[in-house]
Amino acid sequence: MLKNCKSAQERWGGVSTLIDRWLEERRDVLVEFCALGDINDFDSKNTVHREKLKAFCEILVDYTSAGHFEIYDQLVQEGKELQDSQGLEIANGLLETIDTITEMILDFNDKYLETDDLKTLAADLSQLGESLEARLAAEDQMIEVLHTAHSKKVMNKA
Q1: Any residues with CB less than 8 A from the CB of 129 and at least 6 apart, and which?
Q2: Which end of the chain is more exposed for a tag (fewer CB within 10 A), N or C?
Q3: How far apart are CA 123 and CA 105, in angstroms?
Q4: Average pLDDT of 107-112?
């Protein structure tokens, strides 16, 4: 996942400062996720484990929120301004997938900020990892569809 994140940043990093920051935050989410994955036995009394989990939840929610309240809106607005109905139709389908995964992310966050019981954390992290992979793929596809379409239209107007 981290390799794919870098690849996405290389392809779309110049789109805007906002997307650059968001892709950097995505990388940070994946780094924190991997750090949690390195823990073999989660101990709720271990303050290091709790702090790593808390830091991960915070950055995960920040990343998720930025996508919903900044990035996706910006991409959709660009699609509307350039009358890219095909790109917008694809983006709407991708947003449905992303919304479903957002609910899972928020449930994960709520669960682990409210409990000291970390017995199911490893299994939940595994499921979250699969969902994050699907989410990142959907986000990448949305950026590709809308940005590529917009770049071509902007070049044709020049």
Answers
A1: 1, 33, 37
A2: C
A3: 14
A4: 95
pTM value?
0.82
Q: How far is residue 21's CA from residue 66's CA, in Å, rounded to a whole number? A: 10
Give the pLDDT mean for 78-88.
86
Q: Angle between the 85-114 and 47-66 helix axes, to the nearest 10 degrees?
A: 160
**What residues have CB less than 8 Å from 128, skipping those under 6 apart?**
33, 104, 105, 108
Encoded tokens for 75: 């991409």
Tokens representing 39 are 């823990």
Spatial distance between the Cα atoms of 71 and 117, rounded to a whole number of angstroms? 34
- Tell me, what amino acid is at 45? K
Instruction: Output Rg (C-alpha) for the chain, integer angstroms.
Output: 17
Tokens coding 131: 């969902």
